[in-house]
Structures are given as structure tokens and as C-alpha cells.
Amino acid sequence: MEKSNNYVLFGVLALVVSLVAVSLAYAGFTATLNISGSGTVVNAKWDVHFANLALDENTGVTVNTAPSIKGTDTTIIEGLDVSFTTPNTSVSYTFDVENRGTFDAKLSGLTIGAPSCSGDPKAATVCDYITYKLYDTTTNTELTAADNAKLVAVSGTRHFKLVVSYGNIPSEDLPTNNVNVSGLTVAFNYTQDGSNTNGE
Questions:
Q1: What is the pTM of this model?
Q2: Domain ranges in the chain?
Q3: Coil, strand, or helix at residue 75?
Q4: Exposed, middle or buried: residue 80 (CB in 10 Å: 0-12, 13-18, 19+)?
């Protein structure tokens, strides 16, 4: 009788050991696979603006109001007000157009205003001696509406000079009254150039 009880006990122990062995074997064949990562959506922006406006040269012109970049709106230069008292005088200002956005920009339109004069019977003749010109100072060339140079993203800068002149008008054409000059404007129209977003 004792002998049979010993057999039963041994059988139970053997069963427990086998369950543990199976459990360990099963655990040896499990694994957890993880894939992790991160991404960033880059903030694309359009930022073409004026910068570094400065007086370049003044040869006898009275500057009533110097031009300035308008407050926080860096796409406008305003306030130029000058008086010419003698012929053969001029004033010039330099400034930059910068691209600090993420898109290449192309100068798709350039409008340079023509002086318009009033206030004296000889105003139209006087206007023939008023010039308003824009230059690229890097190449030292006068710009026209045909200019379409690309302004590369992020690092793109173009250097310009604006010159207002009163030429050598003959004495017989000098006005007897003040001549008001208007139309001294320049408009740059920049548009996105292609789909480039990294300046290359």
C-alpha cells in the first residue's frame, strides 16, 4: 500500500515539472518587436522684403523727408520728399531685397514710375530733365521692366540703388514757379519660382 502511494506522489511531481518545462520552453520563443520614430513638418513661409535702406549720395538736393522702410511692413519704402533748387543735382539711396523664406522667388514684374510735373507753364519741359532710375549695384546696370532675376530662397539678396536727378536744363526753360513732381514709384512683383523649397 505504501509502495503505491509513493508512485502516485512521484507522478504528480513529474507532472508539475513537465508543466514548468513547457512553460519555459514557450517563453523562450516569444518576442516583442517595436518600431519607433519621429517626424517634423517644416514650416514653409513666404518672406521677400526690403532691408538696409541708406543714403548713397547727395549732390545739392534738399531732402525734406528721407525715405524709410514702413514700420513692421517691410514690403514698403515710403516718405521720399526732395526739393531740387539747381540743375545738375541728384540724390540716391541704396537698399536690398532679401528672400528669407523657404521658396525661391522670381521677379515677375517691375514697374518704374515716370515723373509727372505740374504747377508751372513749363512743367512739362522741366519733367524732361527729371529722371528716376533703378540700378542693380552688383552688376552696375540699370534695370527695366524686362528684369526677371531669380531670388534664391533663404540666402537670396539683391542690391539696388534708386537715383533721382535734375538734369542740365537750359536757362530759358527754368520754371518761374515751383514744379510739383509726382509718379516717383517703383513696384517689384515677386512670385514663387517653381516648386523649390530649399534654395537649391
A1: 0.75
A2: 48-192
A3: coil
A4: middle
Write out pLDDT tens, residues 142-191: 987 777 777 777 678 999 999 999 999 999 999 999 999 999 998 888 88
Rounded-to-integer distance, Cα 95 and Cα 112, Å: 16
Cβ–Cβ < 8 Å for 152, 198: no
Q: Which residue has the cell 552688383?
A: 138
Identity of the amino acid at 142: E
Show the cell assigned to 118: 505740374
* Residue 91, strand partner residues: 58, 164
Instruction: Please report which confidence band the pLDDT of residue 33 belongs to, taking 50, 70 and 90 as the band edges.
Output: low
Strands (E), the chain: 48-58, 62-65, 68-69, 77-78, 81-83, 89-99, 105-112, 116-118, 130-136, 141-142, 150-151, 156-166, 180-182, 186-192
State how far the Cα of 98 lies from the Cα of 122, in Å rounded to an integer.
41
